[in-house]
Each structure stands twice: as C-alpha cells, then as structure tokens.
Amino acid sequence: MDTMKEEINQRLVKLCEPLKDGRVKDAMLYSLLAPGKRLRPILFLTVLRAYQFDYHQYLDVACAIEMIHTYSLIHDDLPGMDNDDLRRGRKTCHKEFDEATAILAGDALLNLGVNIILQTTSLDDSLKVQLTNLLYQASGINGMIYGQQQDLYFENRKADLSQLEDIHKHKTGELISVSMQMAACIAKKSDLDAWKQLGFDLGLAFQIQDDILDVTGTTEELGKKVGSDLENHKSTYVSLIGVEASQKKIEELFQKCYERIYAMQINHGLILELFIKILKRVS
C-alpha cells in the first residue's frame, strides 16, 4: 500500500509538470501533494490487482480520481462551505494562498481529471467514455455535489439517521464506490452493481469513523481541526446514537463488505487486506 501510494504521488507530480506556472499550479500541487491516504486511487488499483491486472498501466486514471477528490476538499474547506483552516496537517488551500486562487485550483483539478483520462494511452476510446461517465456522474449533482448540498442544508438543522445516511452515501460514498466500479469496468466484469453497493457501505463506515475521530482524536493525529462538526451544528452518528453504537454500526457495515467480496470471483486477500487497514485506521 505504501509503495502504491508513492507511485501515485510521483505520477501526480509528472502529470502536473506541463501545466503553466503560476499561483494556481502552485495551489494545485500544494493540495494534491499534501500527506493523504490516497484511499480512492488505492481502492481503484487494488481492485484491478484483484482482477489480475497490472495496475501500473492505469496509474493515470488513479491520479484522475485523486484530483477529483482533492478538488472537492479544496472547495469543501472554503469560507462559503465548511470554512476550515487545516487539511491533511497543513493550512487549507485558501489559507495558504487566497480564496480566489483556491477556487481556481479546485476548478483546474476538476478539469484536469477528465483530460488525463481522455489522454491516457492504456484505454480505448469506448472505455475512456465509460470511465469518464462513471466518474463525473458520481462526483456531480446527483452524486457527491448533492451530498455536499445536503450537508450544508442540515448544518443548522437536525438530520435523522436516514437523512444522515443519504448525505454520507453521496458526499463520501459515491467517490469511494465509483473508484472500485471503474476498476471493474476496465476488467470488463459484470460486478459493477456489487462494487457500487459495497462502496456505499464502505463510504458510510468511513464517514462514521470520521464522526468518532472528530470527538476522540486530536488535531495532531487527524491533521485537521477536531470538534468541527459540533461547532458547525452538524448531526453525526455520534451525536445521534453515541460512540459505542456508532462503532457497532461500522463493524456491521464492514461485515457486509466482506460478504460481498467473498461472493465475487476475485483475489479476495488483496481486497480484505486493504479493508482491514481501513477498519483499523486511527486518523
């Protein structure tokens, strides 16, 4: 996993080299290369490995996924959204540069992600269209952006568990889910629906973990401000059902993920190893 993360980081640098120099490029690289888990691209590459594919041919697609994720973080942190000061252990993009530059950096990463997929030589044209469609549906108004919209709507309103799950499914689950779907699409497998549902379960579990860490972790451990959900009057699994019940929900969701994995004709061990690391994460 560490080797894969380093390969992604190195390729991100190479893909940004041809960009015109200036503050926007600097802001893009600042946010892209901040210490992060690279969860979504690693999920994509690991599923490819599980289908017995050489993932190195698809590093550019993995980087495109990370660019879309990073763009969403930059915009999430803006004063008009969550107004955060810290991200991945350093100042947020708009704090390090300025708000206008951060907006442009996010826009540029969104644009660059699709161009990278369209320009990669390891995919035929039909597959490029399929992958682009999957990624931009998941990150668009019916996917991640819808989740962001609902998250903002409930900032000063109490959401119930069903509404909270809907937010997490779209804001977090969509991009996690599509990362695995895209790998299945490349492998030309019929498992897309299974990966989609598995991704939603994993995304929800991941977000509940964040809810718990927001009240049990520290700024140093998480690389971002803790207690922000409470400050922003957001409903969370912890605020609705408590830490213990939230942890139980995480375990139930991971069990559902394991069952879906075992039902597929893949190298189960590779996926399970990664999922166990996610389950045990502390940041």
UniProtKB/TrEMBL annotation:
Keywords: Isoprene biosynthesis, Magnesium, Metal-binding, Transferase. It holds the Pfam family polyprenyl_synt. It comes from the Bacteria. PROSITE patterns: POLYPRENYL_SYNTHASE_1 (PS00723), POLYPRENYL_SYNTHASE_2 (PS00444). CDD domains: Trans_IPPS_HT. Its cofactor is Mg(2+). PANTHER family: FARNESYL DIPHOSPHATE SYNTHASE (PTHR43281:SF1). NCBIfam families: FPPsyn. Belongs to the FPP/GGPP synthase family. This is Polyprenyl synthetase family protein. The lineage of its organism: Bacteria, Bacillati, Bacillota, Erysipelotrichia, Erysipelotrichales.
